[in-house]
Amino acid sequence: MTELLSRDEFRSALEGAIKGREAKNASFSRAWADGELKREHFARWAENHYHYVGPFADYLGYIYGNTPDEFTGAKDFTLQNMYEEEIADIRHTDLLIRFAEACGTTRERVEDPSNMNAVTRGLQSWCYAVAMREHFVVATAALVVGLESQVPSIYKKQIIPLRGSYGFTEDEIEFFELHITSDVVHGERGYQIVLDHADTPQLQQRCLQFVRWGAEMRFAYTKSLYDTYVSPDLEQTAAA
C-alpha cells in the first residue's frame, strides 16, 4: 500500500507530475515564442481560449460548493479567485476580447462556441466534470495546480514576442501581463491547499493523477491549436 508522503515529498511529486507535459513546450507555444505566427492565428487562439478560461469562475464555483465549511481558508481562496476572474477591476475575459479584437476577430466570434475546436470542447468539459464530481482537494489539484499554475511560465515566454516580433501595444496585451502576476499567487495558493488537505495516501495519489491529467489536457489543447490552424497554413505556403 502506498504510504503518506511527507509535505516536501508530495510537493516534489506534484511538480514532477507537470514536468514533461508543460503547455509552454507544445508546438503552438513554440511557434508563438519564435515569432512564427500571424495575427489570424492569435485570433483563433483567442476564440478557443475564451471557452476554456471564460468559465473558470464557474469551475471554481463548483469547487467552492463542494468544499466543507470547516475548510475556511480553502473556501476563501476559491472565492477570491472567482472574484478576481469576474469583477475585480476588469473582467479577465474582457481583456482577452480586447486582445482578440486587436488580432482582427470580433467579440461575437469569440463568444460563439461554434468557433472552438473539438479539443477545446474536451478541455472545457473535463474542467466542468472534475469541478463538479471530484473531492475539492482533487479538483483544486487538477485545475489550479495542473492548469492554472502553468500560466506564468507560458505567458512570460510569449509576452516578449508579442511586444517585439508581433508589434502589439501594452493595452492590447494586458491580459497576459495580468496573468503573469496573478497566477503566480493563485498557483502557489493552490499548492498549499493541496498540501494541507490531501491527508491520506489515496487523496495524495488521486491529486497526482489529476495533476498529470490536467497538464496533459492543456498540452493537448495547445498542440491542437497548431495542428488545426497553423499547420494548414504552412502546407498551403509550401504547396504554393
UniProtKB/TrEMBL annotation:
Alphabetical list of Gene3D superfamilies matching this protein: Heme oxygenase-like
SUPFAM superfamilies, A to Z: Heme oxygenase-like (SSF48613)
Listed transmembrane segments: none
UniProtKB keywords: Oxidoreductase
Pfam families for this protein: Haem_oxygenas_2
Family annotation (InterPro entries): Haem_Oase-like_multi-hlx (IPR016084), PqqC-like (IPR039068)
Protein's UniProt name: Iron-containing redox enzyme family protein
Organism (species): Streptomyces endophyticus
